[in-house]
Amino acid sequence: MSLPQISDAEKPSGPRRTRIQQRNRQIILDAALEVFSTHGFRGATLDQIAAGSGLSKPNLLYYFDSKDAIHRELLTRLLGTWLEPLRKLDPAGDPQAEIIAYMRRKLHLARDFPRESRLFANEILQGAPRIEDFIRNDLRDLVDDTAQVLAAWAQAGRIAPVDPYHLIFSIWALTQHYADFAAQIGMIRGADHDPTDGAEAFLEQLYTRLLAP
Amino acid sequence: MSLPQISDAEKPSGPRRTRIQQRNRQIILDAALEVFSTHGFRGATLDQIAAGSGLSKPNLLYYFDSKDAIHRELLTRLLGTWLEPLRKLDPAGDPQAEIIAYMRRKLHLARDFPRESRLFANEILQGAPRIEDFIRNDLRDLVDDTAQVLAAWAQAGRIAPVDPYHLIFSIWALTQHYADFAAQIGMIRGADHDPTDGAEAFLEQLYTRLLAP
DNA sequence: TTGCTTATTGACTGAATGGTCAAAATGGGT
DNA sequence: ACCCATTTTGACCATTCAGTCAATAAGCAA
User: Fold this and answer.
1) Among B64, B36, B65, which Cα is nearest to B49's?
2) Which domain holds residue B196?
3) Domain boundary at A9, A39, A64, which?
4) What protein residues sit with their CB closer than 7 Å to strand D?
5) Which of A95, A178, B5, B50 could staple A158 via S-S, CB 3.0–4.6 A?
């Protein structure tokens, strides 16, 4: 069995690509993700990515126009995936179940794609210069909509009266922490077991108790 | 009124320093904190720090041996401060009040020292190469001790039975998020108000409900 | 095989980077 | 004023960086 991949998002009318191109672009993006997610954009070097992918530096630049283009491609592929779990929250569903299901989807994202999570964290730490548009438009609209749903649920007494924005932020914080701070968690709990071990049960308990009307 | 400073931690028998040295070292560290906390160690440049501090690059290196030495000094000054809130947790106190007070101290740290918080986050994202020792020894011991206290409280029925490690991690995640992801929060809620607005009340509500026996 | 497209690389460039050094400027005590 | 230690800087260096380019090698259809 294989993990779901952060999808290619290739447009139907996109550039025709040979098998070699598809394969090598993927290899490069994979090595680049490793480097960008640990050192950030400025701290990453093409030489590191070249070494990680087993290709020569000029060869990287045969497949991508620039260091920036590689980074942009990674972010582009990520952003859609990042929004999806929140999009799936159903206003017509059971409030507690919906929120906990959203938390669980986010946690699984952090567990299955920790490098993508750290890439995102790095971008935000730098002030989000490359995804400011995405955050101010797509993400903000989605959060505002969801906050209204949550507020309505609270108003109707179907969940405890909590600040909807902080409720969303808390889910982001708690789930993303297991990817972004995995190094710290590993050093404290022992690097042998999964940093998210026990997290799902704990978070379920937390949100069950927080949201009970 | 002035914020409490991340202290100098100068040893009593440390090197004698003139007024100019004390002042310029502080100016350099302040500018360096800004740069390191947003771009990470590798992404930061001495030229940026020089520009930010208003000093020439050779002048930086008159006060510090190297880029690494500046970074190390910042981390050293930070680590003690980072441990203190957890150290203050009193095993003899009221369980709920103690845990919530710890959360509040951490939140204030994130609010008052967001750059230090991001410096720490950057270090962990990179795999914590420079503070691995600190985490594996000082931090781990303190966390283990605290986890035992929490477990005893849970055992005695004085708080709800929760995983003590995940409880600690949750406090780290929720409080640190308001500093590390401040850019994102600002873009969603409007950059005009403090990202931690309303956070204290929300987190108090969260932990009150989570910990109630 | 031939011929053409795609893929790969060694050698290079100009700019940026961390760091050095000797000389010059400054500061403070007398 | 003088002196000497502290501070500051311009010029410089070796290395690393992103990116270029012409030449070569590999893939593939006929």
Assistant:
1) B36
2) 75-211
3) A64
4) A 19-20, 44-47, 57-58, 61, 65-68; B 18, 20-21, 24, 55-59, 62
5) A95
